[in-house]
Amino acid sequence: MKRSAALFTGLILSVTLMGCSSSEEVDQLSQLTNKVDMLSDQVSSLQGQQDQLAGAVNDSRAASDAAYQEAMRANQRIDNIADSYQK
């Protein structure tokens, strides 16, 4: 009997507390949820942009390395020509 009375009292308190919540709080919660969703979309968009930039940096690094190697090879050819040339 005591147990069922305690459960009934708990149920009544829960219903009473639910009735005390206002629609303003629900609206604020939905606004916050929308803001979180918007921020999540922005974060995923920024991650995609960051991945694209990282790929561009890697491509330009590879191009820079290739240009450096070609310049070193050209300098070596010029040095070989200068060494073989005698006045």
Automatic annotation (TrEMBL):
Function: A highly abundant outer membrane lipoprotein that controls the distance between the inner and outer membranes. The only protein known to be covalently linked to the peptidoglycan network (PGN). Also non-covalently binds the PGN. The link between the cell outer membrane and PGN contributes to maintenance of the structural and functional integrity of the cell envelope, and maintains the correct distance between the PGN and the outer membrane.
Secreted as UniProt keyword: yes
Span of domain Lipoprotein leucine-zipper: 35-87
InterPro entries: Lipoprotein_leucine-zipper_dom, MOM_Lpp
Residue runs in coiled coils: none
Signal peptide: 1-19
Keywords per UniProt: Cell outer membrane, Cell wall, Lipoprotein, Membrane, Palmitate, Peptidoglycan-anchor, Repeat, Secreted, Signal
Protein name stated in the entry: Major outer membrane lipoprotein Lpp
Domain of life: Bacteria
Pfam families (UniProt xref): LPP
Quaternary structure annotation from Swiss-Prot or TrEMBL: Homotrimer.
Subcellular location, record wording: Cell outer membrane; Secreted, Cell wall
Biological processes, Gene Ontology terms: lipid modification; periplasmic space organization
Keyword Iron-sulfur among record annotations: no
GO molecular-function terms, A-Z: lipid binding; peptidoglycan binding
Covalent lipid sites (S-diacylglycerol cysteine): C20
Modified sites of kind N6-murein peptidoglycan lysine: K87
GO cellular component: cell outer membrane
Lineage per the UniProt record: Bacteria, Pseudomonadati, Pseudomonadota, Gammaproteobacteria, Vibrionales
Protein family per UniProt: Belongs to the Lpp family.
Placement of Sequence repeats on the sequence: 33-43
Membrane topology: Lipid-anchor; Peptidoglycan-anchor
